[in-house]
Design goal:
Length: about 375
């Protein structure tokens, strides 16, 4: 059996992966252990900054909050404390789906058994996981809601991927993808879009089969873009590229919270949530990864297609009453700013076209991380 923990409805937690850069060269540096040693000596950062698979990465982890404002304050204060440490070490921070020019072959894997096993099994593809993301947890108050809400959330993968897309460059090349990270990450076994299950028993059977056949050793090795997180009693949305600014992280967090709460409310009223065939979801993910904010997405089971930015604007309007109730109205409105200032991949490509210099792109990402979105 897979037990699902008790969690209050629509509570939030966020994990924000950050890259460590040499402040002079703006290349990635394998200095996570130094940063984490300093973090361990700071009581205010206990359990708020943790290591990741690569030694060039740390992750800032929020506590559990009821509002996006709580997430903003939590992540913001943790980042401020972390920057005091990294500044002293000559390290700059950024968050994007990929680093503009660093090369995967030059990176070091953290010395832990689970990471060594992942690399041993996946080899070339596992070594390519030089990627950074944002993961959003939303509390679910009834286990029987988990799979229907996941199925409905699948329809919003392209929305989330388009606005968060921040990985147009890979090892110094312009890939012409808004999110190259999305294409890379799904190469791992059990990563990518989740299966759609009719019942929790079917999901438990899948987990049992994966364990029995040795595909996974632990439940958290199921790395879907959207997955149940039974130990926390949440649905975890892992679609998004790393986002350079706290404003962007909070906008997406508000959008996800409002969607999940709306779906939960509709289930309480006895409604059946909308779904689409798997092949629509696969196509939508590719379109959003390739074209980002210009993607024409398949919107419903009747195969209606529209530009993703138009759909996002309508969803923001539809969800406005939910956002008022959840106290995240301003953050939800910030979902419209991606179309105004450009998603990160658009800002990066524009900077590269202006300067011809990928270090200028990395510098822009560092400046956005510390200074916020351009106005």
């Amino acid at each position: 059996m897979v037990d699902f923990a008790r969690s209050d409805r629509s509570t939030l937690g966020v994990e924000w992966e950050l890259a460590l850069l040499d402040s002079e060269t703006l290349d990635l540096v394998p200095r996570a252990s130094e940063v984490l040693d300093a973090v361990a000596a700071d009581p205010g950062l206990e359990n708020r900054v943790v290591g990741e698979m690569l030694t060039n990465t740390v992750e800032v982890v929020s506590g559990v909050h009821r509002t996006v404002g709580g997430i903003r304050g939590d992540l913001g204060s943790a980042v401020d404390d972390l920057r005091a440490i990294t500044d002293d070490l000559g390290i700059s921070l950024l968050s994007a789906g990929t680093h503009p020019f660093s090369r995967w072959a030059d990176q070091q894997v953290t010395d832990k058994e689970r990471y060594a096993e992942l690399i041993n099994r996946t080899q070339w593809w596992g070594r390519h996981m030089l990627i950074f993301g944002v993961h959003t947890h939303v509390g679910i108050d009834d286990r029987d809601k988990v799979l229907p809400i996941m199925g409905a959330l699948l329809g919003y993968v392209p929305h989330l991927q388009a606005v968060s897309a921040s990985s147009p460059f890979w090892a110094g090349e312009n890939t012409a993808y808004a999110s190259n990270r999305a294409m890379l990450f799904q190469q791992l076994p059990t990563a990518g879009l989740p299966y759609q299950f009719d019942s929790w028993t079917d999901y438990e059977r899948y987990v049992a089969d994966m364990l029995t056949t040795g595909v996974i050793d632990h439940l958290n090795e199921i790395r879907w873009d959207i997955r149940p997180s039974p130990g926390w009693g949440t649905i975890e949305v892992r679609v998004c590229d790393g986002m350079p600014t706290l404003d962007e992280v909070c906008a997406v967090t508000a959008f996800v919270q409002c969607l999940v709460d709306d779906f939960s409310d509709r289930l309480d009223r006895g409604e059946t949530l909308p779904t689409m065939p798997d092949w629509f979801h696969v196509e939508n993910k590719w379109r959003a990864a390739r074209y980002g904010m210009e993607a024409i997405i398949i919107e419903n089971a009747e195969a209606r297609e529209r530009v993703v930015t138009t759909v996002i604007a309508e969803e923001v309007e539809r969800l406005a009453p939910v956002a008022e109730r959840l106290e995240c109205a301003s953050e939800l409105q910030d979902m419209l700013r991606f179309a105004e200032v450009g998603a990160s991949y658009q800002r990066q490509v524009a900077e590269h076209e202006r300067t011809g210099d990928l270090r200028a792109v990395a510098r822009q990402l560092c400046e956005e991380f510390t200074g916020g979105l351009p106005r």
